[in-house]
Amino acid sequence: MLTAVIFLPVAAALVLLGVPRIPDAVVRWVFVAVAAIDFALVVVLWSRFDGTGFDHETQLPWMPSIGVSYHVGVDGISLPLLAMTAGLFLAGAVYSLRHTDRPRGFVALLLFLETASLGVFASLDLILFFLFFDLSIVGMYFVIAVWGHRDNRRAALMFFLYTFIGSLVLLLGFIGLYLAADPSTFDIPTLVEQHPLDGSPVAGGLVLLAICLGLAIKTPLVPFHTWLPPAHTEAPAVGSAILAGVLLKMGTYGFVRIAMPALPEQWRRYALVFVIVGVISVLYGALVALAQTDFKRMIAYTSVNHMGYIALAIGTAGTIAGNTEQARQLAVTGAVTQMVSHGLITGALFLLSGVFYDRARSYDMGSYGGLAGPAPRFAGLVAVGAFASLGLPGFSGFIAEFQIFTGSLGARPVATALALLGILITAALFLLALQRMFLGQRRLPQSVPEFADARPNELVAVAPLLALALVIGVLPRFLLDVIESGASTVVELVAR
Amino acid sequence: MLALLPELCLLLGAVGGLLVGLWLPRERQWIVHALAAAALLAAIALALADATGASRTVFDGTYTLDPTLHTVRVVVPAATLLVLALSRGAVRGHVRETEYAVLLLLAALGAVLLAGASDLLVLAGAYLLASIALYPLAGFAKDAPGTEAALKLALFGAFLGITMLAGITALYGLGGGTAYATLRGGLTEVPPSAVTAAAVAVLAGLLFKAGAVPGHFWVPDATEGAGVGVAAFLTTVPKIGGLAAIYRLSTEAVPAPAGLALVLAVLAAASMTLGNLAAFWQDNARRLLAYSTISQVGYLLIAPAAAGAELARPALLFYLAAYAVTNLGAFAVVAAHHRGENLDDYTGLFRRMPLLALTLVVCLLGLVGTPPTAVFVGKLTIFAAGLDSPMTWLVVLAVANTVASVFYYLRWIAPLFKEPTDEHTAGVPVGWAPATAYTAGALTLLLGVGGGLILEALSA
């Protein structure tokens, strides 16, 4: 069942490519249909999830002589991310009903990307994880290079080189883990059970360094974030939404799934590094976002800020001294909730930023003003997205950040206090942006006579994402129950 | 004698093809190519049938049948088959159509013999067979670039061949024999530095075959000057034989204290780095591929340098097969896109021939080592062997080089998806090259996904 969920999109993509002369409209609706079916299947997986350990597990030998198997399964950490991924792709599919040129290739590529993304979150084997991780990079490269705009080739190359370097460093770390295990294996549950590098500080430190460097580039954490702004800005709207919503989570998810449980001793030793890098990412991301005049670039930098909270939380989870298990669990739960929440909210905001480009070919905030008049629905959506993103109570971002701060305050009071400043700055920058673009004198870029309001497909794509963020903000239990089951396991494993 | 049936098949194919070709009119010379293909297929089938047998030596220990040879006996004919197919369009009806097939078979036979030789004199014979057949092939078109290619190849082959013979003489003097088993015992009493010096001289010839630094100078010119088919062959098949021979020599003949592993590691580092650096700004597709093959040999050389690791041999053999298929796939695309001299000429290929463009993407990303292609599994296992041995610095360098290589492969991939301009109007694909490219591209993916089964067999 899980395998079907992962490979359904790519199978559909092959059919689309294989059958000649499909009308564009059919291609677009096939995308919606496949994404919807896949989402429905993930919901079924969720409903059948029993809440303990790995569920829907499949393990088949793949390369037994080097300990590689096709091993997939879900637990409380990966399931919400799978659901978020499938949901975001569905939103992207609905959004693409109007917005693409050369739709066949685009749809096939996005379906391929969906398989890769779902695969990363479902993998329980390091090589399988790496495979999907790399394929997602390749897929996204083509999305940016072929369907992006402005300086997209340069941005695509930069994205590819950066994240590919990251993935190879990650691979080095994986091989290190593989060689340390006895018998050598790439199987994640086995490695977690053995945590083979505890007691060898040098090798363990190097392997942790390699894995975390690779994941930090993907996440991205400051100072490895320089690929992110151009990649996000030059990608097409759906591409940016997937890049921010799904691909960034592969980095943070990797920390929680692989680095923390498989290298617990090293994680505890170097936990402070993550706290510091997290706080720097929070503040730096927020401050740089504040200085942006380009709407999409601003959202991109708030992603750096939001990922910083996650780093802070997982760093705290490795801090044992002066910390309680309850606080650590709260931090990890908050981190995973933040991954889901950021995916929904930032995904929605990037889709909305596509509307700017569609109507007026510009993201420059200075050239817009008073848009709330001609485009009230659009203004409403952006406003809701902005408030959700800055962590207003009632939205998922608040639940996530509240848990992160509560979990971190006891063990890392100074860092948490500094990170709190990030929320203030984000609030300021979003309010400023809303004010500039939607209120006051009506302004539009030259040669653009009018600004059409959100179209039905844009509304249908974005509104559910924000609605979901609201539901999680008001009634979070259905999500938190699942996440807590996974988070408590991780917290126990790190404390070993 | 029965143990050498696959080799005999290749020989019979070559000799028989030559004789048949003498009596055939020019328009019916395709029969020789069909005969060659049959011989290659028979060689593959016989090699596969023999591969299950235990490792053993034949002819007084001068020739070893083990997984290394079994693999090479399958990969080399298969690669030759792909070369025959991809150059079909270029040589059909050519004056020397017969000679083309015959020389390919002989060079392939030389490569197989290189892999099996476990005696220095057999090695020297195999080297000559594998090299001399290539010289006329490089100059096959009888044009200026082809002549230059043939001349460079012949000069380097002769020079490094002589060095190799000198090394063989020295090793014979030091170890009191030419068989690897004798040398293994005889060389332990000798000062290691003398053994290293002699072994390095022997390596010189094999590095020429493998196209590794410092025996790489002929590669770019020969690849650009010779026909696409010959270039594909030159950068693939001799490498397979050369690397298998290097592995055998360094593990079976030279004792470990001679420090050959370090020499090989340095050569590996130099090959991958220099190949990559030179490939960076190449605008000619074939030259780019030529330098890329030099860097690929660098990765492959990690295996003999890390020969102590359990995974080293399966990794080398798998990587060789993966590399052969992927590299031939890229050359097949060049052959199919017959106006594709420079990278610019590939602008908009995706619009005109989407499948061919995708094949090129698969092959180039395959050469980078992106999963799920075959080279990824090869790189993964070879890196694991390197870290296990431990040659950590070499693996780190290889990873850095892999990252750097992404840049120039992407320089080729990027124009594929641009809008085609008028000057890049469609060249109609010729002959069987497109089909060969698709086959190789599919094989790359298949080997990558099914790598487990093959690695299992290789580790046995």
How would you describe this protein?
The complex is a heterodimer of chains A (496) and B (460). Chain A has helices at 2-18, 24-48, 78-99, 103-122, 126-147, 152-180, 188-194, 201-218, 228-234, 237-262, 264-269, 271-290, 295-317, 325-360, 376-389, 396-409, 413-438, 456-474, 477-494, and strands at 55-63, 68-74. In chain A, helix 1 runs antiparallel to helix 4 (103-122), helix 5 (126-147) packs antiparallel against helix 10 and helix 13 runs antiparallel to helix 17 (413-438). In chain A, 74% of the residues lie in helices and 3% in strands. A two-stranded antiparallel ribbon of chain A has the order 1-2. The mean pLDDT of chain A is 91. In chain A, a hairpin with a 4-residue loop joins strand 1 (55-63) and strand 2 (68-74). The longest helix of chain B is centred in the middle third of the chain and has 32 residues, at 144-175. Chain B contains 22 helices and 2 strands. With 460 residues, chain B is mainly alpha-helical. Chain B is globular, with a radius of gyration of 21 Å. Chain B has a domain at 263-460. Classes of the chains: A mainly alpha (496), B mainly alpha (460). Chain A binds chain B through residues 61-66, 68, 127, 130-131, 134-135, 138, 142, 145-146, 153, 157, 160-161, 164-165, 168-169, 171-172, 175-176, 178-179, and chain B through 311, 314, 365, 370-372, 376-377, 380-381, 383-384, 387-388, 395-396, 399, 402-403, 406-407, 410, 414, 417, 451-452, 455-456, 458-459.
